C-alpha cells in the first residue's frame, strides 16, 4: 500500500461515501487478472478495492478531492485492522453503537493527513462512513421525508423481500407504481432540486432527455426483472443499510483476498488528465472510469480518450457509464478502439444500480 498525493491540507467535503456503480458489472466487464495494472477513479473506494480481489499487479486510484481519498484510506485501514463484521459496522452497512471505537483501532495505520480529516469528522464516523457523502445525504432526505408519503414500511419490506419474476411484476404494477411514486420522479429528479441538493452543475451541461423519465424506466427494470432481495444499492436507498445483500467489495467471500493484496494499491490526488501526462505508454491494462465523461464536452472527451489510449496496453479495457450524456469512442476511434457492445449490453441488463442509461465497454487495439 502506498499513497502519493499533492499537498492535502484542505478539509474538503465527501461527495460519495460509497461507490454507486454496480461492482459486479465492473469486475465482469474489466476482467482484471494477476498480470495487469489497473487505473480506477477512487470515489468512495469500494471499486478500486474490489479489483484487488483478483490479485492484480497494481491498482492505482485517482481523485481530485482529498476527502474521497480519505474515504479510501479509512477503508484500507479497516481491511487491515478489523474483522469483516466489524468493517461492516464501521461503514454503516450494519447497526453499531461502537463505530468510534472501531475507528480508533484503524487510526494508527492512517497517514497524519487522513487522521486529521477523520478526527475532525467524528459525526460521519458515528453514522457510518458510507453515509457521509452528499449523495448519501440526498437519499437520506428522500428516505426520511419523502418515501413515507408514498409507501409505508410494510410495503417497502414487501418490495425488498423479492419473490419470483411474476410476483415482482405483479407487486410493482398493483402496489408499488402508484401515482405518488410517478410524481416523485418528476419532482425529485428535476434539475433545480438536484442542484440544490448537491449535484454538480456541470453534470447538466451535456445531458440529453428527461432524467426523471429515464430513472423511472430503469427503476421499473431493477424492481422487477432483477430481484430486490439481491440488490444492495436499492436496499441502502430504501433502508439506509444493506439488509440481505452486500456490494462486491463488502462480501465476506472477497474480504480475505482484498486484505491480502492491499500492498498492491496506491492512491493519488490528481485528475485523470494529470496522471496520464506522466504515465508510461501501454502501461495500463484496464480502466474503471465511473461516469467521468458526463460533464465533458465531446471535444474534451475525445482529447482525454486519446490520452487514455496512449497509456493503454493492447487489449486494455475501458469501462464507464453514461447517465444521460451519450459518450462512446465511435467511428473516429475505430482504428484504435473495439467497442464491446454485446458484452456491455448483456451486463447492463444485470446492472443493479439504476441511475445510468448505458454501460460502455471498449478495448484498445
User: What is the gyration radius calculated from CA atoms?
Assistant: 20 Å
What is the arithmetic mean of pLDDT? 91
**pLDDT < 50 runs, ≥5 residues:** 4-11, 196-200
| Sequence of strands across the biggest β-sheet | 1-4-3-2-5-6-8-7
Helix content: 40-55%
Distance between the termini: 31 Å
Q: Structural class per helix/strand content?
A: alpha/beta
Strand content: 5-15%
Count every beta strand, where a strand is a DSSP E run of 2 or more residues: 8
- Tally the helices: what do you get? 18
Give me the strand/helix succession.
Answer: EHEHEHHHHHHHHHHHHHEHEHEEHE
Described by strand count, sense and barrel closure, the largest sheet is: 8 strands, mixed
* Shape designation: globular
Mind explaining what this structure looks like?
With 365 residues, the protein is of the alpha/beta class. The chain has a domain at 142-239. It has 18 helices and 8 strands. The chain has helices at residues 23-30, 46-52, 66-81, 84-91, 99-106, 112-119, 122-127, 134-146, 153-160, 165-176, 179-188, 191-196, 211-224, 232-239, 252-260, 272-278, 298-311, 341-348, and strands at residues 2-4, 37-41, 58-63, 265-269, 284-288, 312-322, 337-339, 358-364. The chain has an 8-stranded mixed β-sheet. Helix 2 (46-52) crosses helix 15 (252-260). The model is unreliable at 4-11 and 196-200 (pLDDT under 50).
Amino acid at each position: 500500500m502506498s499513497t502519493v498525493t499533492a499537498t492535502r491540507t484542505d478539509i474538503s467535503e465527501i461527495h460519495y461515501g460509497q461507490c454507486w456503480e454496480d461492482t459486479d458489472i465492473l469486475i465482469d466487464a474489466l476482467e482484471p487478472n494477476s498480470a495487469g495494472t489497473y487505473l480506477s477513479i477512487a470515489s468512495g473506494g469500494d471499486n478500486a478495492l474490489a479489483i484487488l480481489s483478483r490479485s492484480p499487479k497494481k491498482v492505482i486510484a485517482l481523485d481530485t478531492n482529498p476527502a474521497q481519498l480519505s474515504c479510501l484510506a479509512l477503508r484500507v485501514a479497516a481491511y487491515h485492522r478489523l474483522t469483516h463484521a466489524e468493517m461492516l459496522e464501521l461503514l454503516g452497512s450494519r447497526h453499531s453503537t461502537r463505530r468510534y471505537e472501531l475507528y480508533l483501532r484503524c487510526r494508527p495505520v492512517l497517514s497524519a493527513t487522513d487522521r486529521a480529516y477523520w478526527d475532525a469528522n467524528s459525526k460521519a464516523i458515528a453514522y457510518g462512513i458510507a453515509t457521509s457523502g452528499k449523495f448519501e445525504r440526498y437519499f437520506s432526505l428522500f428516505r426520511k421525508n419523502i418515501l413515507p408519503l408514498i409507501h409505508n414500511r410494510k410495503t417497502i419490506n414487501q418490495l425488498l423481500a423479492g419473490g419470483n419474476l411474476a410476483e415482482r411484476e405483479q407487486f410493482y404494477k398493483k402496489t408499488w407504481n402508484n401515482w405518488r411514486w410517478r410524481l416523485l420522479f418528476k419532482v425529485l429528479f428535476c434539475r433545480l432540486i438536484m442542484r440544490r441538493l448537491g449535484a454538480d452543475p456541470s453534470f447538466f451541461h451535456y445531458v440529453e432527455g428527461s432524467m426523471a423519465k429515464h430513472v423511472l424506466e430503469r427503476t421499473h427494470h431493477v424492481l422487477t426483472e432483477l430481484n430486490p432481495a439481491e440488490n444492495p444499492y436499492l436496499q441502502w436507498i430504501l433502508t439506509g443499510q444493506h439488509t440481505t445483500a452486500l456490494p462486491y467489495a463488502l462480501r465476506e467471500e472477497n474480504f480475505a483476498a482484498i486484505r491480502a493484496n492491499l500492498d498492491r494499491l496506491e492512491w493519488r490526488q490528481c485528475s485523470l488528465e494529470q496522471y496520464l501526462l506522466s504515465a508510461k505508454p501501454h502501461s495500463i491494462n484496464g480502466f474503471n472510469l465511473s461516469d467521468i465523461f458526463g460533464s465533458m464536452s465531446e471535444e474534451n472527451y475525445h482529447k482525454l480518450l486519446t490520452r487514455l489510449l496512449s497509456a493503454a496496453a493492447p487489449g486494455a479495457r475501458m469501462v464507464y457509464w453514461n447517465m444521460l450524456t451519450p459518450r462512446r469512442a465511435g467511428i473516429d476511434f475505430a482504428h484504435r478502439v473495439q467497442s464491446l457492445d454485446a458484452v456491455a449490453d448483456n451486463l447492463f441488463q444485470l446492472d443493479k444500480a439504476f441511475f445510468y442509461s448505458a454501460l460502455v465497454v471498449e478495448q484498445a487495439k
